[in-house]
Design brief:
By secondary structure, the chain is α/β, with parallel strands linked by helices. The protein has a 7-stranded parallel beta sheet, sandwiched between helices. Strands 12-11-10-13-14-15 form a 6-stranded parallel beta sheet, with helices on both faces. Helix 12 links the parallel strand 13 and strand 14. Helix 9 crosses helix 13 and helix 12 crosses helix 14. The protein is globular and about 75 Å long. The protein starts with a strand and ends with a helix.
């Protein structure tokens, strides 16, 4: 099968990027002819992939960068020349589109409306050329005739798209992301627990709360800081056991500095630390006692099932798609309100006091994760590819 993948970046850093990286490898392993259309490709990209670099002359003008990427794809990657075109970035026309962010107007609720800015500035941001360009591309993308299937990572996002654009259950399909259950395994805990506690300069017996994610405000980092403040102000963990809130992910230095300043101000600078982006996230999972994602919105959140596969209980916001894998109190916990620092404190104390409970939840989390392997996911995606390619051939014969 001749497959075209479209995304601005071909690399393994970032949730969507890492997913595509693994998908492309699987497609190549299965013998498919894979072409990747992008602005940037990592030097370690799979040599079996034919990389097509899209000119990026407008990279310093945000709305033009988005517009030019979509325009180039529309002109040069024509649907009738490929068995399947699978799009992941801001593009108007493809056979299969995997949506990793949801609808723009819904996303603006979190990315603009909830920011600590004045009404005028929020209105200007909504009316910006960049936002208008993204919305225009989205409206074309979800117009019948410009796609065959829309794949969402969660029912949360599927519902958004179907409601806003009047699409059917047959047109919008939820397929949860695959998990590398051989990379993320409970055996990592005894291997990396002590080593990584030493690496982040905390005591070997520390209770480690881990959060992995970019865009700190949207991921709920202020709520984690408040939870750490509450926990410390109430005397900390039983027996004086130390604790550490470890934040891993990419963010602008100004925002990270702002968050660090808040930690200093409220007295948890030693308990909440920011470690930036990390390649070997499985080792950080192996160190964690609890994974927390108090996100204000996430289409899915691959880090949640990865934590579960590592045997780490997860506390996940109801506004993150990955919460659909959580049975509250059975294999993890649901955070009804992403601003609810009290519940985070409650769950940290509960698990710190009861190691057998933490182990039971971790084992149940692993059992759920094993149902969403990469093999299972890839078989579903390949079946969808076959379905779409067959439909294209039938339609070509009719014409």
């Amino acid at each position: 099968m001749r497959v075209a993948i479209t995304h601005t970046r071909y690399c393994a850093k970032g949730g969507v990027e890492r997913y595509i990286w693994d998908l492309v490898k699987r497609l190549c392993d299965a013998g498919h002819d894979v072409h990747y259309f992008c602005h940037f490709a990592d030097s370690h990209a799979d040599p079996r992939v034919k990389i097509h670099r899209i000119p990026n002359r407008w990279k310093h003008i945000r709305f033009m960068k988005v517009w030019s990427f979509d325009r180039w794809l529309t002109r040069h990657v024509r649907r009738d020349e490929w068995d399947v075109i699978h799009g992941f970035s801001k593009s108007s026309i493809q056979d299969i589109y995997t949506d990793g962010s949801g609808c723009l107007l819904d996303y603006q609720t979190y990315s603009i409306d909830e920011k600590p800015e004045g009404d005028l500035k929020k209105a200007l941001r909504r009316a910006s050329l960049h936002q208008r360009q993204v919305l225009a591309i989205e409206e074309r993308r979800f117009t019948r005739g410009n796609f065959s299937k829309i794949v969402t990572m969660s029912d949360l996002v599927a519902k958004q798209i179907k409601q806003r654009y009047g699409l059917s259950d047959d047109e919008v399909v939820t397929i949860y992301n695959g998990i590398d259950i051989e990379r993320f395994v409970p055996a990592l805990r005894p291997t990396y627990s002590a080593a990584y506690r030493e690496r982040i300069v905390t005591a070997p017996d520390s209770f480690v709360v881990l959060c992995i994610g970019n865009d700190y405000r949207r991921k709920g980092i202020p709520t984690l800081i408040e939870a750490a403040r509450l926990l410390k102000s109430r005397g900390g963990l039983p027996g004086g056991r130390p604790f550490r809130f470890a934040i891993v992910g990419k963010e602008r230095h100004t925002v990270e500095n702002e968050m660090s300043a808040i930690c200093k101000k409220v007295g948890v600078y030693a308990e909440v630390k920011f470690y930036g982006p990390q390649d070997l996230v499985e080792r950080w999972m192996g160190m964690a006692d609890l994974f927390v994602l108090p996100s204000r919105f996430d289409a899915f959140g691959n880090v949640v099932p990865e934590a579960m596969a590592t045997g780490v209980p997860a506390l996940v916001s109801k506004k993150a798609g990955a919460v659909e894998l959580i049975a509250d109190g059975e294999n993890g916990y649901v955070l009804e309100d992403p601003d609810d620092a009290e519940t985070i404190v409650k769950r940290v104390l509960e698990l710190a006091r009861d190691e057998p409970l933490r182990q039971r939840l971790g084992a149940a989390a692993r059992a759920i994760a094993e149902k969403y392997t990469w093999d299972h996911h890839f078989s579903r995606m390949l079946a969808l590819y076959d379905e779409v390619a067959a439909a294209k051939k039938r339609n070509a014969l009719v014409r």
